Amino acid sequence: MTDYSIPQKTLDPTFAHLEHPLIETARMFAGNRAALSGLAMFLIIVVVSLAGPWLYPTDPFEMVWSPFSPPGVKGFLLGTDYLGRDLLAQIIHGGRATLAVGCAAALLSVFIGITFGALSGFYRGWVEEILMRITEFFQVLPTLLFSMVLVALFGASLPMITFAIGIVSWTGVARITRAEFLKIRELEYVTAARSGGASNANLIFRVILPNALPPIVVNAALLIGFAVLFEAGLSFLGLSDANVMSWGAIMGNNRPYILLHGFTIMYPGLAIFLTVLSISLIGDGLNDALNPKLRNR
Amino acid sequence: MQFLVITLRRFGLGLGLLLAVLVLNFLLMHLAPGDVADTIAQDAGGLDAEVMAQIRKDYGLDLPLWQQMLKYFYSVAQLDLGYSFYYNQPVTTLILEKLPATLLLIISAQVVSILIGVVLGVIAARKPNGLASHFVTILSLVGYAAPVFWTGIMLIILFASMIPLFPIGNMVDVTVERTGFAYMADVLHHLVLPMLTLASIFIALYSRLARASMLDVLGSDYVRTAQAKGLSEFQVVFKHALRNALLPVVTTAGLVFSGIVSGAVLVETVFSWPGLGTLAVQAIVARDTPTILGILFFSSLVVVVANLLTDMVYRIIDPRIQASHTQEM
């Protein structure tokens, strides 16, 4: 007589042998040397920028010595700028505005991008049609020029600059979110939740979005770096808040003197370079940790 | 035939996008503080209210908003983008004068970065753990993280100031009058540094992309078949694999065109390259709203045209893509 009973699997019913996905991600991230050094570098930059005024109390706007003193003269480690202000103080204090604008602008574009991507990927039809046309519009618009126009017409204040950066940088997030939503909305657990009577808002926020997050998180991290670069570009062109020191503003101020006093541009540029580099390393590490399939690329 | 239909459809979409840019331009012009009358009054050192009202009437600023907008569309359709009171020239004349310099810069930078990027990517993909592969990884990180204007300044300091191989800026040597071939050579000599600066960001992007997609393609069945047939490695890589590996590069090349125009603004400023970017920065300093909005429109036009061309190239490389295809967003 044949035994038709289902064979018993020897699975631990408490799933204790499985790691929580977040822990697994964290473990993979921690095993990635490049990503860890990026994270360490980024943390150092953030801490120094936040604690700057206590670590190095010299006023970045005060003229302390003759203009363009080369690095090292009179104890000014990085020298002085075109007005004789301490360059090291400017870089340490300038990090705050640069990082604040970068993070706020990235947050704004992630918010817009998720909204556009989620709505168009979930509802499809005419909603998708309209939202995607708007996304295309922002892809065609030369971003820097548009932000320049906004800042020039409505004033170079930190909130306006943040808005001008955030409003043009969200198209990537929208595309990724939409693609994830298109993929996930067809999956069985979404159908199950829907037939269980879940409302649309519930489906979007509690069922689909959490599962769509990994690539969005990676993109959001990279967006901070993009926004930092963008802010630097605007300030370099002279579109910065004159009352706030930022890395881009230091370079914009000293722009006319690059041939004779290149160091006044080199150091703030290096600060931006290291910041964006560390963010890219973190982003790549997150990408590898969240998509183990892609790791061998 | 189908090719024509799709191209026409794309063309229509492009026109729609440009119309949207015009609406945006119009709104910005009206939201911005101050109008034409204010500008003229400022130039004249103050005018009384009656004259200002007359000027507003002459320029049609007393009409309802939608009529003004239609008037604006009508004049743009006739290539009239308004008048720059700062330069005392029609904006269109001003822009057409500067456009060739910008086009030369962005097109050469795009071509050079795709060429170098793809070559680097292919070399790196053939030995995924080799030296070239690590080089591409590092290059793509460094090329992206360095602000483009900073790269430009560092290149000027290195290759124009310390080792005077290239001029520090401008598009031609104004102290010597040249014609014909000598003139072109001079322009190319001036082009090298700004072009490399602008290309640096995109070389990083393309080499990384080309490496990833080449790795994908090299692992696929049809490449293994080609290898099994005994084709030389050159034939396998360049005749069989490259064509498919190029697709993501072409898609991205279309997507980043607006980024290239943005980068060009910064690069032009650093190298005093006499193009639309330097004009835009000067117009912003001078608060010359018609000029800056005209540039916004023209550069959007450049991006739309570039996207149309990219789309055609994409369909030539990959004939599988037909009417049903709308480029993957």
From TrEMBL, chain B:
Gene3D superfamilies: MetI-like. One of its GO terms (biological process) is transmembrane transport. It holds the Pfam family BPD_transp_1_N. Residues 99-314 form the ABC transmembrane type-1 domain. One of its GO terms (cellular component) is plasma membrane. SUPFAM superfamilies: MetI-like. The keyword Cell membrane applies. The chain crosses the membrane at residues 12-32, 101-123, 135-167, 187-206, 245-271, 291-310. Keywords: Cell membrane, Membrane, Transmembrane, Transmembrane helix, Transport. The keyword Transmembrane applies. InterPro entries: BPD_transp_1_N (IPR045621), MetI-like (IPR000515), MetI-like_sf (IPR035906). Its main location: membrane. It is a multi-pass membrane protein. It is found in: Cell membrane. This is ABC transmembrane type-1 domain-containing protein. It comes from marine metagenome. The lineage of its organism: unclassified sequences, metagenomes, ecological metagenomes.
